[in-house]
Amino acid sequence: MNIGIIGATGKAGKLITQEALNRGHKVTAIVRNSSKVDTPEVSVVEKDIFDITAEDLAPYEVVVNAFGSFEGEPYVQAGHVLIPALQKIDTKMIVVGGAASLFVDEDKTTRLIDTPEFPDAYKPMAGGMAKLLTQLEQAEGITWTFLSPAAMFDPDGPKTGSYETGKDHLMMNKKGDSYISYPDYAIAVLDEIENPQHVNERFTIVGEAE
Fold first, then answer.
1. Structure pTM?
2. Fewer beta carbons below 10 Å: N end or C end of the chain?
3. Per 3-state DSSP, what percentage of the chain is helix, strand, and coil (rounded to 5)?
4. Which domain holds residue 188?
5. For 65-115, how does the pLDDT look when each residue is reduced to its tens digit (9 = 90+)?
6. What are the CA-CA distances from residue 156 to residues 95, 169, 208 (Å)?
7. What is the residue-wise DSSP string for 3-47?
8. Which residues of the chain have pLDDT under 50?
9. Could you tell me the CATH number of the domain that includes residue 101?
10. How far apart are CA 155 and CA 7, in angstroms?
11. What pairs with residue 3 in β-bridges?
């Protein structure tokens, strides 16, 4: 498949890029700074996410949005740019989302971000990601998937190739931890690209740490 990856030089973006290459897909990095792309087999488009157009995304069957920010508003702004662009074309978007919008109770009244132990420092970023999810849920005429990681999203974790999926609730592994490594998250992204199971909805994953 022909896959575009926005934010391909970030921690998650790099691993998703490599996983896609390992599976034989054609990959284009859509990045703000092309000098940071150090993978020769990847094509590069240098463009800020807020300047992306429908014409930029049209060549790809799937675009992975791995854009990241410590502030919340950029996620909302990105949604205002990407959703109208996608409405004009047939490209699907998969979003590297956050865990904060996952529910922690069966009645779906309390999200992870609302719990006392959620760090204040991450609330702006988490709130922005949650708003982007709402934008996607309310949008018409696009095909999207939003993948929320577990609460502990470990950039240095192992690649086990194993994970379990859920929908809107925070999941725990056998040890009682909400954990997923970046490499296993990348596997889940490519599994969803190759075999879509969560069209126009959010899902989440949990894995085991070695």
1. 0.96
2. C
3. 35, 25, 45
4. 2-206
5. 999 999 999 999 999 999 999 999 999 999 999 999 999 999 999 999 999
6. 21, 24, 13
7. EEEETTTSHHHHHHHHHHHHTT-EEEEEES-GGG---TTSEEEE-
8. none
9. 3.40.50.720
10. 16
11. 27, 62
Neighbour tally for 26: CB within 10 Å:
16
**CA 199 to the chain's CA centroid:** 14
**Alpha-carbon dihedral sign for residues 19, 199, 107, 65:** positive
In the three-class reduction of DSSP (H, G, I as helix; E, B as strand; rest coil), residue 108 is classed as coil
Q: Nearest 5 degrees, angle CA 71-CA 74-CA 76?
A: 115
| H-assigned helices in the chain | 11-22, 54-57, 73-86, 123-138, 182-194
d(CA 189, CA 15): 10
CA 133 to chain centroid, in Å, comes to 11
Phi, psi for 96 (deg, rounded to 5): -75, 100
Question: In 3-state terms, what secondary structure has residue 93?
Answer: strand
Length of the chain equals: 210
CB 82 within 8 A of CB 21: no
Q: Can you name the residues that pair with 181 across neighbouring β-strands?
A: 154
Residue-level pLDDT at 209: 84
Total number of domains in the chain: 1
For 149, the token pair is: 């990681």
Q: Which residues have C-beta within 8 Å of that of residue 55, sequence separation ≥ 6?
A: none
Assigned token pair, 22: 């390992």
State the chain's mean pLDDT as an integer.
96
